[in-house]
Automatic annotation (TrEMBL):
Descriptive protein name: Mn2+-dependent serine/threonine protein kinase
GO MF, one annotated term: protein serine/threonine kinase activity
Keywords of this entry: Kinase, Serine/threonine-protein kinase, Transferase
Natural source organism: Desulfoscipio gibsoniae DSM 7213
InterPro entries xrefs: Kinase-like_dom_sf (IPR011009)
Length: 248
């Protein structure tokens, strides 16, 4: 593979082992390597299938320069990115990890999301948003969250990201558990405290609900086998005046 030559030649390391990681759109590898001094290192290599790597590399570097926790890019060209490996647990696994209290990671997650939104504003309320809020794109190190996968960003009000992220949490297996609604309420409440302290404003809970339902509809389109169940839940939740409470 071309990226193997690039990694060994450009970074002056020897590859010991590698295996492919889960990715919908690209080829992603976790690589174990060793340098000339005998120090073992780990990298993530992202090999692009369709889009070029330049746009994501620019976004990641820009966010990192503004203090956001994202992986450090070691090297890139227009076809691949080599970046540091972040050792931690994915948000999708945190939800079912009974050894970690949900309250231990909700605040860091809300803080990371708020800091992303605070990096760039457009208009009265729109802010920089992460288009893909899949739970696999958030890594918890035990103290902080890192965000990964920035192929596409957009500008939306913060309610969009909160609603979409809550939708991913709710329809991730096991789906629509009561404790997941509590997690979503705590996440939004924590974000609201940060938002009110700096923007001196209140979140629009109806907008959060709109984006939450909209993402569930998109999930129903993607998942043929789960579609009837998801559509039934969407109809049920649409009748509720408020899905995510102000408390929690």
């Amino acid at each position: 593979m071309e990226w193997q030559f690039k990694l060994e030649h450009l970074l002056k390391v020897k590859i010991l082992d590698y295996h492919q990681k889960f990715s919908f759109r690209n080829n992603v590898y976790l690589v174990d390597a060793i340098n000339r001094y005998g120090v073992k290192l780990q990298y993530i290599v992202k090999e692009y299938v369709k889009l070029g790597a330049g746009n994501e590399a620019f976004i990641i570097n820009s966010l990192r320069n503004q203090g956001l926790l994202v992986p450090r890019i070691v090297w890139n060209d227009n076809s691949s990115i080599i970046m540091e490996y972040i050792d931690g647990i994915l948000l999708t696994d945190l939800l079912t990890d009974k050894t970690i209290s949900h309250r231990d990671w909700i605040n860091p997650l809300a803080r990371w999301l708020y800091q992303l939104h605070d990096t760039m504003k457009h208009g009265n309320k729109n802010c920089l948003s992460k288009l893909d809020l899949n739970l696999r794109n958030f890594i918890f190190t035990g103290e902080h969250f890192y965000g990964i996968d920035f192929e596409e960003v957009c500008f939306y009000p913060p309610e969009r990201d909160l609603g979409v992220l809550c939708a991913f949490i709710l329809n991730n297996d096991p789906m629509f558990c009561e404790w997941k609604f509590t997690i979503c309420s705590l996440l939004v409440k924590t974000y609201q405290r940060m938002y009110a302290s700096t923007a001196n404003d209140q979140l629009d809970y109806q907008a959060i609900q709109y984006y939450l339902i909209d993402e569930l509809r998109a999930a129903a389109e993607r998942r043929e086998k789960q579609r009837p169940y998801l559509l039934a839940k969407i109809e049920e939740l649409s009748r509720e005046a408020q899905i995510i409470s102000h408390g929690g």
